[in-house]
Amino acid sequence: MQDLHLPDRRSIPLLLAVLAIAIAAPFMFYPLFLTKVLCYALFASAFNLLLGSCNLLSFGHAAYFGASAYIAGHTAKAWGWPFEASILAGVATAAALGACFGYLAIRRQGIYFAMITLALAQMVYFLALQLPFTGAEDGLTSVPRGKVLGLFELDNPLTLYFTTLLIFICAIALIHRTTHSPFGQILHAIRDNEPRAISLGFEANRFKLQAFVLSAALAGLAGANKAIAFKLATLTDVHWTTSGSVILMTLLGGLGTLFGPIVGALVVVTLENYLADSGLPIQLVIGTIFILCILLFRRGIVGEAQAFLQRRRGKAD
Amino acid sequence: MPIQALLGQLLVGLINGSFYAMMSIGLAIIFGLLGITNIAQGAFYMMGAFFSWLLLREAGIGYFYALVLSPLIVGLIGAAIERTLLRRVYKLPHEYGLLLTFGILTFTQGLFIYIFQTAGRPYPVPTELAGGFNLGFMFLPKYRAWVVIASLTTCFLVWYALEKTSLGRTLRAATENPTLTRAFGINVPALMTLGFGAGVALAGAAGVLAAPIYTVSPIMGADLIIVVFAIIVIGGMGSIMGAIVTSVSLGLLEGLAKVYYPQGSNMVVFVIMIAVLLLRPAGLFGREK
Amino acid sequence: MWAPIMTEPVIAIRQLQGYYGESHVLHGVDLDVAAGEVITIIGRNGAGKTTTLRAIMGILENRQGSIRIQGRETIADPSERIARLGIGYVPEERGIYSSLDVMENLMLPPRLGPGGMSLDDIWQLFPNLLERRRSQGTRLSGGEQQMLAFARVLRTGANIFLLDEPTEGLAPVIVQQIGKAVEAMKAKGHTMILVEQNFRFAARLADRHYVMENGRVIDVIAKADVPSSLDKIKSYLGV
C-alpha cells in the first residue's frame, strides 16, 4: 500500500532521543502501563511487517498473539517453566500456527486472504473457549511472572519494564534487519509486482510464507510477554476485536513506517485505559477512529509527519 | 440416536443455512457492484433484529410490519452510508473497503452497546406463528418452518430478480463493466447506492427473522459474519445460486455435527474451508479475479 | 431542454486537454461537427483518437477545456448525463457483456430519444443476431459482436454516434455490412464521429477528416480535397 520509510543516518539522533525517553519513562509513568504499550507496539510492528512489506492484510493476528499468551501462561503456571522457556514456548506455538495458517491463506489473494485469516483465527478462538486448560470465559489467571535468568524478580515493575523493553528493542532490530536484508528486498519486489518477481525465478509463495511465519512468531512474542507481564491470558487476546485493534494501531500510527505501529499502540492503549472508566464503549471510539483514519489520513500519524517534513525539506532545498 | 433429535438439529441447520444464504448473497451483490467486502453485514443483521424489537416496544408495531419496515430502515441507513462514506474508497485497493466497513461494524456495535447494553433481549414469536405441527415422527414449530420458507423464498426472488428482470440485467451489466454501462446513459452510481441498500437490507431481513429465535443483542452479528466469510471462501462470490447452495449445505452440515460431535459443531464450516483450500484453492464455484 | 441553435455545431470542442493519470495525452483539441455531418478522426496509433472519443463521452474523467453538445457544456458532466443527450457509443473493444445474452445486451441501453430502430428493423439489418439472440454475448464471433454493438445503440434513438474502429479486425464481407449500416445511419441524418484506421472505408462515408498527431488536430481535410491530398494523408498515416 505504501513504501517503507526507514531511518537513515539522519535519524540516529532521533533514535537516541527515543531510547532516552524509553529509559526515563518508567520513572514518570506507571511502568505496568508502559509495559502494556510495549507489548502492543511489538504486536503492531509484527503485523506491520506483513502488511507493509508484503501487502498481506491479515485479519486474524490475534490468533498468534492469543495462542502464544495461553501457552506461555500455561507452561509458566501449570508446569512451572522459567520465564524464558515460557516465552519461547509461546513463540514456537505462534510460529507453528503461523506456518499452518499462512500455508492455507496464501493460496488465495487480496480480500480472500483477509477473510481466510479471519476465519482461521476464529477457530483458535473457539478452541480457546473449549480446551480444558484455558479457563474458558474466566481466562488463564494468576500466571506467575518468575525471574529473568533466574536472578531478577519480574514482580518488580521496573525489572518487568526493562526486560520487556530489551525484548522489544531486539525484536524491532530484527524487523529492521529483515526488511533491509536481501530477503526484505525480495519481499518488496513480490509486493510491487508479483508476476515479475516470479518470472525472475523467485518462489513468491515461499517468501510470503516465511514472512508470515516471522510475523506470527513476533506477534506470539508480544502475546507471551503480555501474558507473563499481566499474569493473564483471556479470550479477548484471541478475539477478532484484538485483530482489529492491531490493524488500527498500525494504520493510525503509519502503515509501513518503523515508528508508526509504536505510536499507534501508544495512542490506542492510552485511549483504552482512559475509556475503561468512562462508560463509553471502546468500540464506539475505535470504530470512529478507524473510519476517520481510512477516509482522512491513510498515511497515519508518522506517515503524515514524514510527508510534512519531506515537503518542508523539499521547500528548503 | 433418536430420529427426533437428528431432524430437530437438521431443522436448526436449515434455518442457519438460510440465514447464511441471505447474508452471503447480500455480500456477493455488494462485492460485485462496489468491490467492497462488507464485513459490516453483521452489524446490519443486528440492526434488523434491533429495529423490529424497538418497533414492537416503542410503537407497538408487530412482527409482520417489522418484517417490511426494519429491512427498509436498514436499507436506507445503508444507502446513506454508501453515499457519505463508502463512495470515497472505490478507487483505493479493495483492502480499504474491508477496513472501512470494519470501522463501521465496530462503531455500530459500540453505539448499540452504549444505548442498549450487551444483554440479550427476547422477541416474542408472533401469535399467528406460535405452536407447531405434530408430524408424528417430530414436532415442527410453526415459526421455524416459516423462517425456512420465508428466507429461502427471499433468496430465490433475489436470484430471479437478478437473472430474469431488466433491473437485474442492468445490475449485472454495471457489475461487469461499470464505465461502459454509464456511457449508455445508465446511472451506475445510483445503482451502487441501491445495490448496497438492497444488500444490507437482506441482512436486516435475516435479522428480523432471527429475532424470535435468537435473543436480540448488539453483538449478535459479528460472529455470524465470520462464518459467512468462510462460506464465501468455500463457494466464491461469482454465482448467486452457488452462494445459496453452499450456505444451505453448510448450515445442514453444522446441524449434523451438533448431533454427532457437538463440541466441534461451530468449527465445521472452518474445517471445510480448510479442506477446500487444500483440495480446490479457488473455491467450489471459483471465478476469482 | 432548449432547441439547439441551427448555426451552432452539434458537437463543438475547444482546447480539450486530457490526462491518463500523470501523463498528458490530449493537448488542446479543437473539433466541430455540424448536424447530420459525418467526420472521421484519423492518425497513427497513439495520436489520441480513441482518447478524444472517451473524453467526449465523459469516460475520460480527467479532462479540461470545453465540449459543447447540442449547445450544452458537458466538460464537467458524468458519463451517464452526457449519454442522455442522445449519444450512442460503440467502443473499440465492442464492449459486449459476457454476463448478458445477446438479447439482454441489445435491450440494456435505455431509450435516449424518439426514432430508434425497432427490433424487426434490427433483425432485418443484422439477421445473424436474431439466430443467436439466446447466446452468451461473448460467444459471438468478432463480426457478430460488432453488429451487436451497433444494434445496441441503434435501438436507443440516439442521433449522435461515436464509432471507434468499427471495421478493425473484421472480414471484408462484414466490413461491407457495417458500411451499409453506417450509410443507413447517415441517410437518416445522424451526426457521426468515426475513428477509423481503414481510410478507404472512411473516405467513402465522411464529409471531413480530422488528422490527429500527438494529442492535437494537425489538419482538417474536406471530402472534396481528398483526391488532391492523398500523398499528404499517406504521410500522416505513415503508410
Describe this structure in words.
- The complex is a heterotrimer of chains A (317), B (289) and C (239).
- Chain A is mostly helical.
- Chain A has a single domain (9-316), classed as ABC transporter involved in vitamin B12 uptake, BtuC, CATH 1.10.3470.
- Chain A is 73% helix and 1% strand.
- Chain A has 14 helices and 2 strands.
- Chain A has a two-stranded antiparallel ribbon with strand order 1-2.
- In chain A, a hairpin with a 3-residue loop joins strand 1 (147-148) and strand 2 (152-153).
- Residues 1-6 of chain A have low confidence and may be disordered.
- The mean pLDDT of chain B is 92.
- Chain B has helices at 3-34, 41-59, 63-84, 94-116, 142-164, 166-176, 178-183, 188-210, 222-235, 240-260, 268-279, and strands at 132-134, 139-141.
- With 289 residues, chain B is mostly helical.
- Chain B is built from 11 helices and 2 strands.
- Chain B is 71% helix and 2% strand.
- Chain B has one domain: ABC transporter involved in vitamin B12 uptake, BtuC (Orthogonal Bundle).
- Chain C has 239 residues and is of the alpha/beta class.
- In chain C, the strands form 2 sheets. In chain C, strands 6-7-8-3-9-10 form a 6-stranded mixed beta sheet, sandwiched between helices.
- In chain C, helix 6 (142-154) packs parallel to helix 7.
- Mean pLDDT of chain C is 91; it is low at 1-5.
- Chains A and B meet through helix 5, helix 11 and helix 13 of A and helix 4, helix 9 and helix 11 of B.
